[in-house]
Write the structure tokens for this entry.
Amino acid sequence: MKTKLLTLVAVITLFEGCRDVFVPDISKEMINLVAPADHFQTDENQVSFFWNPLTDVDEYSLQIVTPSFDSIVQVVLDTVITDTQFSWFLDDGTYEWNVVGLNEAYQTDCCETRTITVVDNLSNDLSNQNVQLLTPAEGSFMNNESILFSWQELTGADKYILQIGDENFTSISLQKEVIESFFSTSIDNDGIYFWRLRAENNSTNTFTAWAQRSFTLDRLPPVAPQLDYPMDLDTLVTLNQTDDLIWTSAEDVISDSLCIYYDSNQDSLLLGVFLQAMEYDLDGNGIFLTPGDYFWKVISFDQAGNASVPSDLFSFIIE
């Protein structure tokens, strides 16, 4: 028996040791940067970075600092992406950037570094500039009465034109000329909305391209969840089943709040937890109930943050 055990341990150890072999070692490789070229200078505020793909790399870590990696004042960007290009907005100044490749076990050698300088747009020509939108985020769900539209202030912009309309802006429900870098308004009806913005300069009669996003306005709360098990006044002899509490929520629900109380007045809370699954295993989560009466309910939340009314308050008895 001891020999068999040692053999099994050896096989497991060999398997675990060989598993890493299937993750290629890229530590001696280096990412080849494509653009911008080293010491590139531009007066455009949106810069696109490109590099060549590398075999056996799953993700790329892009870093941008100012003014240099040897003397960092600010880490402007530190992001991990799967693509081999990325665009970012940069203020006037000098920057350095690099890219490191990553897989499950290794990262490439670090690394080629390049310098880029963004200079002031002295001519105030906005035709090659872009506006960076801030809020609402693309594809966001909101339940606000008042919607805040905001964007990064653009050098040389005298005003901004904000439009809200359908997807192709053939029908425009709001057009506003704004001096500041924000604007708030109320929208009466729920639905999917598209908004876009451009900056304009009066003296040069130039303007940026439209920057566009969409958002969903949803102020209708989901329906209350239905408690399925245990039913009201059920007696549970044991809690050794997989799912002790089970309920059903509406399709638009993304999470539920499960509450368990010691009393029917809901004054003494035993457990409060947010869940995405419509079930909860008490003992599996380290909650072992002593004999007695307990009370539970569930509240549902949709993607916009609306809360349903609570479910019925059910009780169950532990014997």
Observations:
- The radius of gyration is 29 Å.
- Residues 1-20 have pLDDT under 50 and may be disordered.
- The CA atoms of residues 242 and 281 lie 6 Å apart.
